[in-house]
Amino acid sequence: MTETTAKDIMTRDLIRATEDMTIEEALKVLINHRITGLPVVDKKGKMTGVISEYDILAHISGSKKKNAKIFQEKITYSKKVDAIGEDTPLSEIVAEFIDTKYRRLPVVDHKGKLVGIITRRDLMRIYYYRARLED
Amino acid sequence: MKLKLDAIRDISVLVAEGAITPENFAILRAGIKKLFKDGKNKIILELPESGTFTPVLLRELATLNLMAAELSGSIVLAKIAPLTRAKIEAFSKPPAVRCFADREVATEFFYPKVVEETPHPSTTTTTPAATPVVTAPPAPAPAPLDAAPVNEDNAKQFKAEIRAKEMGDLGSVRKKLSDLEAENSELKGRIAEMVVTRRDPPDLDSWKEKVTILEKQLADAIKTAQDAAAVKK
After folding, report:
1. DSSP 3-state assignment of B6?
2. Taking CA atoms, what residue in B is nearest to A4?
3. What value does the mean pLDDT take over residues B73-84?
4. Coil, helix or strand for B3?
5. What is the complex's ipTM, to 2 decimals?
6. Confidence class of residue A13 from pLDDT cuts 50, 70 and 90?
7. Do B135 and A18 lie within an 8 Å CB cutoff?
8. Cα B128 from Cα B131, distance rounded (Å)
9. Which residue of chain B comes nearest to A43, CA vs CA?
10. Residue among B125, B69, B131 nearest A129 (CA)
11. B143 touching A, CB under 8 A?
């Protein structure tokens, strides 16, 4: 039996932010989708970073003006791209989550294009059902 | 049976081509379990050629649905025939599995459409060029029950259509039955007449002819019996 890899378990068709998004847009996506962070991609779909609630809060609190105009400014986000390849085996994915303590890890193809995302919750679900179906 | 896998956000759409026989259901079951093992428990089963489900298979599907529900997932059916859908919905209350007309409606069960919110007063200064372009799909709903009114409306509409069709079918079947009964009654009368005609000759000559025939038959029978007795001796 072939080993489970990231592409088997990742969520495709994912929510993403674009580099030219405003604070208002990013904030609405996070709140309306009840998530705390999302990957940011460029126009070609290549992942360029991650934006979280922390980034937005830091942007707002760091600005001198606290009026409506601030929400029309472009997002500032972490340009650090920690992602896993779509062929990464499950055991390595779990190890990555444990080591980094990340809540979610984007999945990219060999060209660096964002193709999916895996969360801690996804992994818990996998372990639960695998144990359940072995009974 | 051929299985094809699609995805809509975190929903897995399993398209199964072929009738749902016990053998084919084994393939479908294996597909669902594979999805569970990959952590996918929001599943739309698209069954365009489903035909009908036996109670045994439906119970099994309900068990898998319960397993999905253990971690806030669900298995729903899409693109099944209206009559099959009515049978599934009548099988148990609430239905063992939810049924929807197509994939889009089934997706709304998991992620009901969000009504466009009115702009916040703080954003009224936004120029058209800066209008948000959100690439993300609609927000997930707190609970799938939000879709219930829409689905119930659909269900009511389908039930009404099925009822109307059944009533139409029932009317034509009753008319056909009535015609057949009338024809049967007429044929019975004709048979009775023929029996009487055959048994009771119409005139004296015919009576005499019938008696002659019977006498001849009787004579033949007596002769045959006598011959048989002679052979024995």
Report:
1. strand
2. B38
3. 89
4. strand
5. 0.78
6. confident
7. yes
8. 5
9. B135
10. B69
11. no
How many residues would you count in chain B? 233
Helices (H), chain A: 6-9, 23-32, 53-62, 90-100, 120-134
CB contact under 8 A, B136 and A15: yes
Of A33, A129, A130, the CB nearest to B140: A33
Q: Which helix (H) or strand (E) holds B223?
A: helix B204-232
Angle formed at CA B128 by CA B126 and CA B129, multiple of 5 degrees: 100
Reported in sequence order, the residue ranges of B82-192 that DSSP labels E, i.e. its strands, are 98-100
Judged by DSSP in three states, B20 sits in coil
Chain A residues touching residue B126 (CB < 8 angstroms): 24, 72
Do A126 and B38 lie within an 8 Å CB cutoff? Answer: yes
pLDDT digits (tens, 9 = 90+) for B142-194: 444 444 555 677 777 777 777 777 777 777 778 888 888 888 888 888 888 88
* Nearest by CB: B122 against A8, A18, A68: A68
Q: What is the pLDDT of residues A41-63, one digit of tens each?
A: 998 888 999 999 999 999 988 88
Residue B199: C-alpha distances to residues B190, B192, B195, B214, B217 (Å):
14, 11, 6, 13, 16
Residue B125 has pLDDT above 60, yes or no: no
Residues of B in contact with A93 (CB under 8 A): none
Token pair listed for B10: 């975190």
Nearest Cα residue to B52 out of B82, B26, B20: B20
